[in-house]
Hints:
mainly alpha
Amino acid sequence: MPLSNRAAAEFIGTFWLVLGGCGSAVLAAAFPQVGIRLMGVAFAFGLTVLTMAYAFGHVSGCHLNPAVSLGLVVGGRFRAGDLLPYAVAQVAGAVAGAAVLYLIASGKAGFDLKGGFASNGFGEHSPGGYSLTAALLCEFVMTFMFLIIILGATDQRAPSGFAPIAIGLGLTLIHLISIPVTNTSVNPARSTGLALFVGGWAIEQLWAFWVAPLAGAACAGVAYRLVSGERSRAAGIEGPAAGSTIPKSPG
């Protein structure tokens, strides 16, 4: 599959992740009497990945996240040369998703970006008031485990066709744990898209939501190869990118 097609799939998929996941937080989480609250937002993020994995997993691998792409490179599942184009497409998709969300949300009287716009933060900008150290540790560990789930579920030795379910539920669980700490990033593109609209403190704290997820993902790539004994598959791949969230069916 040409890189341009794969990048386009990553753009659309990340657009949907931000619009669906962050949109649930901004538009629906606290809607009077029928708001979906924390659990609903967590499931919304999981569902965006689940649906896009089935829609585009066979096209681009459905990474939707620069940290996932990096973890797959380190884990030997993805070409290092494709990492930057994927990251650019993912960030662009996140910005586009945030732009559409802003246009929708601002259509309501009284809308104010000071409410956070689902941005990630620590200290006074953490939903639960958690420190920078707690935020970095949380984002590192959650992204580490997310990549372990992805690498394990997409291993050629794993049951075929179920990876999107495991990955979507894994992201749901991660949000259930960490929304109170950082509003849950584990995805630098998602953090960047919203921060560009909020500006100020969100831009100032954005570095943490690149550093911790990328570090966690890279460590997971190393750890999975050591534990599983898997050898690199990235070198000779043709067609869809390595690290697809839908493994090939046996036979």
